[in-house]
Design a protein that fits this description.
Length: 290
């Protein structure tokens, strides 16, 4: 049974907070939800320890935030289509999410958040990095900020999840990522978002899914995109989370990037991920004419 002992403690100066004094398997009242919503808005990602939830409890917790947005490319658990597996077996070399990205930015209405629960972790390694896109945007010059506010960018899943792309060509991704036929047309999102909960301006491009600026060619876009990526990944905007079985990281996809480190070859790592729905972003639309 939860009481009123919920505590929020910053984890790193720019991104992340611990949430302690709560059992996510027990009833959670509205006051606790309000505290956690504020912590997520303020810090971009919230971390929990020792939450050994059943799949049903994981799903019930996710539904307290928003309807579930099922990822169409990840293999789900055998029993619960709402839960995506993020798995790497001892014999596999590639991991899932091993580069800076934000989930579902290729969707017209990107998932608001992802709730990742550690089921099995390697004895060492397999940490996840997070980066604050609010801190990154605020550290740019006023001139570049103003330019970016007027820009839009194209996001795509084709080159990552499509039939001719990354995961489809990797023999050892087989069984973990699939459905290349579920790739949808590319979408256009603003480069700078006003975050609906924090009111903060955030940079909304990412190295995995953003392919170019709207109205620019890929070649023309590369220089500025790479400048933004190098800037946004600066260590001072990031934190690094070390998992234990039962740890949860719940990140806001509109405010952060994340990066799953792949430094544990020969060991097993199994995570369960639920993505929850977001509201549409102002000014987003399907890319027309392609
Ligand atoms: C992901 O990119 O969603 C997975 C992150 C992780 O496994 O740490």
């Amino acid at each position: 049974m939860n009481s009123d002992r919920l505590r929020v403690t910053p984890y790193a100066p720019q991104v992340g907070a611990w949430i302690e004094g709560i059992d996510l398997a027990a009833p959670i009242d509205e006051a606790m939800m309000k505290t956690m919503r504020k912590a997520l808005a303020d810090h971009g990602v919230i971390f929990f320890r020792d939450q050994h939830l059943s799949p049903e409890q994981h799903i019930a917790f996710a539904r307290r935030w928003a309807p579930i947005d099922i990822n169409r490319f990840f293999k789900a658990t055998d029993t619960h289509p709402e839960i995506a597996e993020v798995r790497k077996e001892p014999g596999q070399k590639t991991n899932i999410g091993g580069g800076w990205h934000t989930d579902h930015s290729y969707d017209l209405e990107p998932a608001m958040g992802s709730i990742l629960l550690a089921r099995e972790v390697p004895p060492m390694g397999g940490d996840t990095l997070f980066a604050s896109m609010g801190a990154a945007f605020e550290a740019l010059s006023p001139g570049l900020q103003e330019t970016l506010r007027g820009m839009r960018a194209v996001h795509s899943s084709r080159h990552v999840f499509g039939a001719q792309a990354g995961y489809a060509k990797l023999a050892d991704a087989d069984g973990r990522i699939g459905n290349p036929d579920k790739v949808l047309p590319d979408v256009v999102h603003p480069v700078v978002l006003r975050h609906p909960d924090s009111g903060r301006e955030v940079l909304y491009v990412n190295p995995a899914f953003t392919t170019r600026f709207d109205g620019w060619t890929e070649r023309e876009s590369q220089g500025l995109l790479q400048t933004l990526y190098q800037h946004a990944a600066r260590p001072e905007f990031t934190c690094r989370f070390t998992w234990q079985e039962g740890s949860i990281a719940f990140w806001d996809n509109r405010a952060t990037w994340h990066y799953a480190l792949n430094d544990y070859h020969g060991e097993r790592r199994l995570m369960h991920r639920i993505t929850v729905r977001g509201s549409g972003l102002e000014g987003s639309h399907w890319l027309s004419g392609e």
